Task: structure prediction
Amino acid sequence: MDLDALRFGNFSQLDAAIADWEQMTKNLATLKSDARNNLRAKAAKADWTGVNATVSREFIDKTADEFGDAHTQAQTISKILADTRGELVGYRDQLNDAIDQGLKKNLTVVDQGKGSFVVNMNIHPDRAAKGVPVEHDQADVDRLRDQVQDILRRATESDTSAAEALTLIVDQATYGFSDANYTDRDSAAHAIAEAEKLSKILAKDPHKVTPTELNSLNEGLAKYQNDPLFAEKFATGAGPKKTLEFYAGIADPYQGYGTDPKRLEQAKLLQKNLGVTLGTATLSDSEAMEEWEDTMVKLGPEHLGIDDANDPTGFGVMSNLMRFGDYDDQFLNDYGDELVAHDKERNVKDMNPWINNWNQGDLNFYDKNDRGRDPMTGFMEALGHNPDASAQFFAQPDGTGAGVDKDAEVNDHLTYLTKDRIWLSDAYLMGGDDKVVAGHDALGHALEAATTGWAYDADPMAAKDPLVPGGLDHRTARTAGVMEQVAYLYGSEDGPKMLHEQPELADSLGKMGAAYIDDIDYSLSGIGERAMDDQAFPPKYAGRANFTNDGAVNFLSVLGQDETSYKTVTAAQHLYTLSALDACPASVEGNFDKAHDAMTTGAEARGILDHARVQQAETTYEADSEEANKSLGRSGDWVKLGAGVVVGAGIAALPLPGSTAVALVVAPLAANSVGEAMKTFIGHEIDQGIDGAEADATQKSQMTSHDVYSAGTDQLGQAYQTYLDNNPGAAAESNERNWTQGINYAYSIGSSHDDQRGRAPYKG
Result:
């Protein structure tokens, strides 16, 4: 910065700009509120159909979000400008004060342009007239020079760092606005400076990185991993290839961490911290990051040409990093398209390109059953944490809304990954279980995210400030389109075989079925494909899933075959029916019929599930054998899930049966609040008739097939009785309409006494 530019700086134009930005921030705050509470809220409540259910609704949601980002960006720019202006004015005052103090000693500071200046003595001691006092010497000149130079250096740093921060913020979004949020120039400048410093560590040979440097890298990434300016500066500073080489070198167990627990822990932390940071970086639309993403995709099939981790491909490394973080949707889809295309060409039995005896490149630290050698597994985990990207990756080829009734209407990626790809166990030799295929589990996670709109391991109840009642329901026409395909595949003739040969998917399939239990009931409610009951089962979101009557029966009959998926869907079905009863008090005209239809349809769904579970247990084990009865007993434990149900805005979260992790099942509700019917399930005491062996803790519950059906009818009866108890006068009308007979008949239809409905049990 030139001396005179700061010394005589006129900040009136900057002051005007700051005033304009501050006013803009206030105006955008109003628009943000209007967009959220009016535009988006009304769109959420509207009954969208056809193209509007996908294109228009999604456009409105994104537009509303853009107003929020516009406000954030304007606020950040305003704060950085104001902060920088304050700093520059302060430096100007310091400079003028220093120059004034120099004049008192007969020292003059002269601007020489291009950032240079000189300090002159007005009267040189050697040339002063006799008797003229000289109040300065060379030391005074040097001190003034250093003082002025330091002021100009700091002013230049303030000015240039503000310019860099503002440029990065504006470049973050090619279209629209950035959500980068900083309170002042210093915080943005510190983030950028830290990124430059830490990216230099990645430029080093990973074998020569000291423990102190590695610890410093992890601490910095952990602190700034969600900072958009830091993440972009860090990623572009290191570059794609060097980032991959560095992580592979640190993670390679043969580089010495195996004997150093501290080094192992740092390597594990690096996988997560680096993954999250790179994900944040990809959210930028700047030209530099677009180039970074393109290069990373191109590096995917290439071997890195290093001695570490068996010289992995770019896919082999990046897929393990992207297990963590929020990544750009388009980047993940471009990456996934390239990975699947590359993988298809090498999908040969007994010749797996990733999992084999010569590949010892263990690059994943977070699962004993997943060494990280198969990049498809890590990519599926990435999709599992990025619902929008996953929904895009598995989107229906021809849009949504018409259902799926033939193979050609299923996404190619989905067909390949569920039916054609050869998945192998990638368990560690020490501590892993070679019977577990981690890739199937990861595929399930990706599909959960694609169908529910939530990251597979998210806690919806931790979400703050839901927009409208039902705002925690993240389903859309696009997610429903993925769900229709999943139900078609796993409800097909191959469905039982697919489920039993991919047991790691059972919990995910159960969660997906639970998430769409209202749409499944709707598909069951008609006569064939006609007269479906949208009064008793109104859509909870735009563009609801269309399973068809046969499709719903087939899918439920497959889910019922597995203990875990049976428990999950049965619990969701029971809770949804109870919530429908709460939503239909008999005092309101028309509600009695809705309650009746909810009960009978729920009874049919329950019958399908119970029948499938009984048939599979008797097929897997000998009918009425001890093992079959134990299996049925474990299945009946689903009632215990009621004790852990938490109700939010339009949804309920149930604990995932059999899981020791924090895993939740998100299920839709017909009622927005907990009524008396739901209270009979939520937190209720375990039925001793269901858990017959509870008195003997050494034994599992045992149930015969007769007990399963008896429990089913009894629980339906309890729901029915609760409705009558809480709706005086309903009993007479229900008797007149033969409710009990209708419920029993629906359960019998579901139980398939003619054995012609649904899919047959898997025989192995």
The first helix runs from residue 3 to 7.
